[in-house]
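> tool_call: predict_assembly(chains=two)
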Amino acid sequence: MMAHMNPIASLEPGRDRTMILNMGPQHPSTHGVLRVILEIDGENVVRIMPDIGYLHTGIEKTCEAKFYQQVVPLTDRIDYLCPLTNNLCYCLAVEKLLGLEIPPKAQWMRVMLNELTRINSHLVWLGTHALDIGAMSVFLYCFREREDILRMFEMVSGQRMMTSYFRVGGLALEPPLGFFDFVRQFANRFPGNVDEYENLLTGNPIWGLRTKGVARITAEDAIALGASGPTLRGSGVDIDLRRDMPYSGYENFKFKVPVSQDGDVFARYICRVQELRESISMVQQALDGMPEGPIKADAPKVVLPDREKMKTQMEALIYHFKIITEGFAVPAGEIYQAVESPRGEMGYYVVSDGTAKPYRVHMRSACLANLQLLSKMCEGRLIADVVAAIGSIDIVLGEIDR
Amino acid sequence: MALAPAITDVEELRGHPALARLLGASVVVEGAKFDREEMTIYVDRTAVREACVLLRDNPACPFNFLSDVTCVDWYPQEPRFEVVYHLLSIPKKERVRLKVRLPGSSPAIESVTSVWPSANFFEREVYDLFGVRFNGHPYLRRLLMPENWEGHPLRKDYPVEGYR
């Protein structure tokens, strides 16, 4: 508790008309435990300073003490709204270090689940963002669909949130019977659901007043401050790592990258809502073109053998024992693997020294960089707009603090 | 499982836009490595800001986006720290990694916040977790750990369980 109780991490009251106001860390609109220190002059924000670190759990340090395969469950806990994106990014990095070839079915499953994760994350964002600004009912609609996606995660991995479904070398398990039917039903229904959300918000004059022209940011500022993802595309910069630097078979999918020129809260809202439609179309494409074949790479020293083989083949049993007790050695080297997470550029920098434990794992958090936009967005504006601005950059504190 | 060996010959890698730019502008390039489709350039610790400006304003391939700044501790080797910059060119979709080696005793380097304001949080995080000082940083305070924390947790000589 001695954390952050000292006076250093605060703004000193400078001018005589202003006062210092703490927003958070228990404020409902800060999406977790973000503390924002505001210097205000009446209703106007003069300066704003985010104070983070309340959720710091030392994941990067923990990774250095674990085997490569034991890091996967830690990656879930970084961004609890898109665990599969983190699983994917880490697995891709380690697979590149190993030089592993991933079978097509595993790749397509990864893309499909990643897009479902994106929908899941955007639904939570949309619901809570609208709730912050004052539109109650959207939240209930969004969480109705989110429940279905969490059920899909539970079907494939047994967990609703901390999935750990992607493993180094492929997937943990075959998807169960009836899974694809369930996803298809959802994919057929979901575009209509997005229409419902848009009916509630897009043309709504109150929503427009609270979001249009609010927390505007130019493309130059957004790039200079390290913004990525929908926050950057909302300012008119056309970049999406899925299209421009494809990974895990994204080059096989057709999708548009929504870009908006206005750079305000509404622009970021529109980008994300359109991404919902693109993502569900990619889920459809993945369902239609899902290849047959194995879900794990042919690398017995890295990938755990099937349970069946362990009961009949001695080699499988030996490899299983060795992977569990000693891990697998990864050739020395380093990889920076970036993926397009729902929040922007999620990057894993993995350094190997040739042993079975990563020498260093660093996560490039999209939210950490996006959070730096806050002062540019809010200074000189009203306190009420701070809430809209924080919502519009879609922060997850688990990812920021790690 | 066939991995191509890393290329570490600077002359052979001269064709890469980032390396060509740095060599052309007489920045002290200590080495380069092309491994697993990724380009790494080692620059001298005094030249990092200059190198970043050159790469950002490179007309052939502007590396205008700073993805990440981080650090690796190679304790007990010397030079102990490697500060790592990941740059991205949004127009050309290219990446490059800059590395600077720093000694273990009072590691310090010039800040790149004047080149990219986004380096602010990244450098604070490296300072917080590794104890590398960034000269010229506008607000070099701990970011994640409490202000009165002792030690820098991601250093290799810092125990995983902490000191207590």
